[in-house]
Write the structure tokens for this entry.
Amino acid sequence: MDRIFGAFSHKVASWSGQPLAFILAVTIILAWIVTGPLFHFSDTWQLIINTGTTIVTFLMVFLIQNAQNRDGSAIQAKIDELIRAVSTARNEFIGIEHLTEADLEQIKAVLEKECGDDERHRLSIERLIRRR
């Protein structure tokens, strides 16, 4: 079931990010607007678009979240492998994504402090920006 849902959510998330999907959505909205006078802008006419967009939004939240979770896990695994493969990297960083937000903030503060004083850090960031 996981493989089927994963493959399905990946395809839907990929397709929904394409220009054709946007054009289809705009076309549906325009068709709905054009039919307004035919249905005398009735409550049912309004209910159709409200219900349709609510259902699509509700389902897309789960599909896109699944795709994002998978992408995030894949990126994390790749980063962990890079940490493991580089001899000077600190293996303690593998798995820190499971820590609390407060713990991650502490680690971030320590790493920023290890980078050097504020002036050196600012200058190195400026150099990075100038490279672009």
About this structure: The chain has two domains: 2-95, 99-132. The longest helix spans residues 43-85.
